[in-house]
């Protein structure tokens, strides 16, 4: 039996969900919903969905639908996820899980009450390069990982639109880009309990819509005059086991070029996940840099998305456990909100102090 799926939010990222569902023999794209009627109709036509909705409550009332992907703005994730779970649907919700820790805990409660699967769209967890490194870590090849360092720096890349509207997004590069790299490090470090965070955010450069001769991705409702999110965030995250994670992310920065780097350092070896897979170790008093041989040495977005959707379908069918359950979404929200709070207060805060 194929799984009848509804996709709520028919903007940019819905395309990756829809392509992956369309490539799966186990799923049927049954319904599409968007506030923007044209967008919903276009996607429904392209992916042969039999139903089109403009109000997600109507989609959720459709008893034929067993699972939904939530691909809307961040401010609606919690509300739609909770309603979907109460309507008896399994849920794949895009990252971040939501905007606040309070919302995250309500989603977690709804998952427990409903007994349905909720998978958070931490797509990097499903990437082949992550799986390769995870295998080495699980076999203790790196020993205890005590330090990780992750950067995702755009020199010019504030997408504007809802991304630049704190009310709808919850923040800028930290909640949009930082969520991915913090999560993948935390996952590979073995999900240690977070002790404290110390963060800084800066809004020094604006969205730099004045810059000419360089193009960048712009949200559909881009408006150069609107921007209420930070340009840059950095943080150190301390864990109870003594490990630490250092992170910096930007929408814009006076950097020479864009940069993505994700590195993990253990007692027996190190791993570079991005920009390219590398394993570093020492054998017979000699340092070895080993390059795993794979079809893609870096993060393969399309493949990772297909893996994520396939894993969601298998989890709904009871064949697998999701790799990114709601509990992990809650922990990541505590870290992100903790960093914003630390930045506001100008001091390191223990995670118990995060406002809920
Ligand atoms: N996994 C990834 O790498 C990745 C990449 C990009 C975006 N995202 C996430 O996907 C989500 C959507 O981002 P996007 O870039 O596709 O944005 P988008 O603006 O292109 O699309 C969002 C769509 O949601 C619709 N929408 C908003 N509220 C709605 C509601 N209540 N009911 C129905 N439709 C509603 C909007 O009309 C819009 O068409 C965000 O949470 C974002 O963080 C994830």
TrEMBL record:
GO MF terms held by the record: nucleotide binding
Gene3D superfamilies reported in the protein's UniProt record: Dihydrodipicolinate Reductase, domain 2, NAD(P)-binding Rossmann-like Domain
Pfam families, A to Z: GFO_IDH_MocA (PF01408), GFO_IDH_MocA_C (PF02894)
Domain Gfo/Idh/MocA-like oxidoreductase C-terminal, residue spans: 134-351
Top-level division of the source organism's lineage: Bacteria
SUPFAM superfamilies per UniProt: Glyceraldehyde-3-phosphate dehydrogenase-like, C-terminal domain, NAD(P)-binding Rossmann-fold domains
Every Gfo/Idh/MocA-like oxidoreductase N-terminal domain range: 3-122
Family the entry assigns: Belongs to the Gfo/Idh/MocA family.
PANTHER family: D-GLUCOSIDE 3-DEHYDROGENASE, UDP-N-ACETYL-2-AMINO-2-DEOXY-D-GLUCURONATE OXIDASE
Protein name, UniProt field: Gfo/Idh/MocA family oxidoreductase
